[in-house]
Design a protein that fits this description.
Layout: E1 2-7, H1 9-12, H2 18-32, E2 36-41, H3 44-56, H4 61-80, E3 87-90, H5 95-105, E4 110-113, H6 122-132, E5 137-142, E6 163-164, H7 166-173, H8 188-196, E7 201-205, H9 209-216, E8 223-225
Parallel strand pairs: 1-2, 1-5, 2-4, 3-4, 5-7, 6-8
Antiparallel strand pairs: 7-8
C-alpha cells in the first residue's frame, strides 16, 4: 500500500532521546518492507514552547505558525538520520519544490517531511501528500486515541467513535479550536481535503509505535474516517 503517516510531534518528542526516536524508526523500517511510506513529522513540545514565547513577545498567528513550521523541520531533520540510506528528507523547502521531490523519491526510500504552509498544521501537509501520491491510507498518530463527540478530558464519559463519515468528522472538528499550537484533534483544512478526495483516514494513539503497524494491518482501537 501507499501510506502517509502524520506523526504527531507530541508523541515523537515526548522523550527527546535517541532511544525513543529509534522505536518509531524501527517500526517504520518494518512497514517499509511491504509498503511505500511518507512520514510527516509534527512540532511537539519544542514547537509549543517556542510558540508560547513568541506569543508572549507579541507574535501574531502567522508568526507563531512560522515558528511551528521551523520546529517541524528540526524534528524531521533529526528523525530522518536514524533511517540511514533508507530515508530521504524533504525539508527546508517551499511546498512546490517539496512535492516535486516527494514524487521523484516516493517508493524508493522512506520519505520524511515537515510542515510547509502558514495557517495549517502538519495534518494538512500529510493530507496534501496523500492526495499527491494517491495514497491508499492516511494515518494520524498522535496523543489523541481517536475521535470523540467532545473533549474526553472535559467529559470522561465521552465515548470514542469507531467509524465516521467525512461529513460527520467535519461537523465534530468545527467545534474545536483551530489556532496555532491548538490542533488538538485534526486540522479542519485537512479534513476538508480528505473529504473532497475520499482519502481513507485512521486516527489512532501514536504513543506506541507498534500500534501504527497494527493500524496498517487493520487491527487498531482508533477511529476510521471514510
Amino acid at each position: 500500500m501507499k501510506i502517509v503517516i502524520s506523526l504527531g510531534g507530541s508523541v515523537l518528542t515526548k522523550e527527546l532521546t535517541a532511544e525513543h526516536f529509534k522505536k518509531y524508526i524501527d517500526a517504520f523500517v518494518k512497514l517499509s518492507q511491504k509498503h511505500k511510506l511518507i512520514i510527516v513529522v509534527g512540532g511537539g513540545k519544542v514547537c509549543r514552547e517556542y510558540q508560547k514565547i513568541g506569543k508572549e513577545l507579541g507574535a501574531g498567528n502567522n508568526e507563531r505558525d512560522f515558528i511551528g513550521i521551523m520546529a517541524t523541520h528540526l524534528n524531521a531533520s533529526t528523525f530522518v538520520t536514524g533511517f540511514g540510506s533508507k530515508g530521504h528528507l524533504v525539508a527546508w523547502k517551499q511546498r512546490k519544490e517539496a512535492e516535486k521531490e516527494v514524487k521523484n523519491n516516493f517508493g524508493k526510500r522512506i520519505i520524511v517531511c515537515a510542515g510547509y504552509d502558514v495557517g495549517a498544521s502538519t495534518d494538512h501537509d500529510a493530507a496534501c501528500f496523500a492526495k499527491l501520491v494517491n495514497a491508499d491510507l492516511l494515518i494520524n498518530a498522535s496523543n489523541v486515541p481517536g475521535v470523540y463527540p467532545e473533549d474526553p478530558k472535559a467529559n470522561p464519559d465521552a465515548r470514542m467513535f469507531e467509524k465516521l463519515s467525512y461529513g460527520e468528522f467535519l461537523s465534530i472538528l468545527r467545534k474545536n479550536a483551530q489556532t496555532p499550537g491548538e490542533y488538538r484533534l485534526f486540522d479542519l483544512k485537512a479534513a476538508r481535503l480528505i473529504k473532497k478526495f475520499k482519502i481513507k483516514t485512521i486516527i489512532i494513539d501514536g504513543n506506541d509505535p507498534e500500534g501504527i503497524i497494527k493500524a496498517v494491518e487493520g487491527h487498531h482501537n482508533g477511529t476510521v474516517i471514510g
